[in-house]
Hints:
Blueprint: E1 5-13, E2 17-21, E3 26-41, H1 45-53, E4 64-90, E5 94-124, E6 127-139, E7 159-170, E8 195-204, E9 206-210, E10 218-227, H2 238-249, E11 251-252, E12 258-262, E13 266-276, E14 279-288, E15 303-311, E16 315-318, E17 321-324, E18 328-331, E19 333-337, E20 340-344, H3 348-351, E21 362-365, E22 445-452, E23 463-469
Antiparallel strand pairs: 1-3, 2-3, 3-4, 4-5, 5-6, 5-7, 6-10, 7-8, 8-13, 9-12, 10-11, 13-14, 14-15, 15-16, 15-17, 16-19, 17-18, 19-20, 20-21, 22-23
Amino acid sequence: INHKLIILLNVTLLPSLMFTRTKHKDAFALTCKTRAYANVDGIDRTLAHMIVNGENDSSLFNQDFSALNISAQIMLWNEYGITYGKTVSQTTNERLNVAGRLKLLQGLYSMYLFTDQADYKFYTEDSISIVSSLVHYGHSPNFEFNPSALKFGFGGKPALGLDIGATYEFYPLTDVRTKMVSQSKTKPMQHEYKYKIGFSIQDLGRIKFMKPQNARDFTAELKGDLDFGSLSTGGTTPLSDADDALREKFSMIPGDDKFKMNLPTVASLQGDYYAGKNIYVNSTFNYAFQFKNNEDKIHEVTTFSITPRWDWKWLGAYIPFSYNKYSHVRAGLSLRIGPIIFGTADLLPLISKRDIYGADFHFLLKVPHISFKKKDKNPRSKSKFDVKREKPGKNKTGKSDMPKKDSSPVEKSHKQPKPEKKKKKEHVTPAVNRKKKTRKHIFPRIHIFKKKNKHSANPENRDHVIYFKL
């Protein structure tokens, strides 16, 4: 809580998923969120003090005060997003990615109150005089302050929202060598990037709500005392009591039957640097559009943060340092243990005596990546000199395609023809057990020629390649 701002927000990430296509260098994602925001702006120190301790402090009675752009907004909504990202440009050590998310917005509840200028005077702890030219006021028909009367419903009409962004990655050009003989060097992008820069604009859009009959814009020009006790009427809920009282005290505008709540639009600039040994440093600047002259809006807070972190496969630690003009400097801590992430953005009130400007806690359960890639039936190398691969010149029965030696008898005058020697049966390892028993040769096989058998019924045996050992 600050003398000019009160902000409450809750973001619940519902089950989401993402899948990538390595060949096309793109990715798709489906996301689902439930979000709730509450903003109170323009409350100066005097008004905040009278609201909290007015009944115990009479020194401010009978004094004229003025406030500018006093507003209070509440909105709850669901988001169903479809995200598409793609690598649009890539070199040996550089990569440019772009992405966009189209969101279906489902408004649940909403309420707002806004006036650009109000002059007020406190007479007693429960009496006040207010003069304002125009007060913008409205809420969704299903919004109630009474928990027993709170109805779950869709107070807003379906709308569309948009998030867009881009990232640039730079990988160092280093001569990286591995222990594998067949892979003496690796590509730069097979290792961690040196730095990454990103830019995004989030939450473009707004949701349309309808107003009930007693919640409309009105003109407040009451120069007499306004006793808060007189606002109590015979309504079924506290909010309906307030609507009936405002309708009796002020003249409402009949044609004002709808309003559009803006989303909390933010422009973000990020930078990430890899220092080595799983240590990174992230810097983020979030600029929140305030829409000060817009009566029906919610907003974020402009924040700058620096976050050093240590990221390993199953463990991670993050220490964010952030600053904004309302809560000033904050230091937090987040931990990642397997798929679980939890922490807070501000630990200083717990370890020091400083004033508490805000509190938060976050928790996330993230399912690891699941690969749907088909397994290769023959995962061995496709090199034609790979000695572990099956000989293309042999059929399944183990017989060679080489022409047989002419064994017809030759007439000799004084010698009998020698009986044909039995050929030594060549051992062929079955295809099933080829991984366990492989024939190793020290000589390479040289490709001599290839002939095609057009009459072969089996398509796999149409090409016959003959190899000779040197």
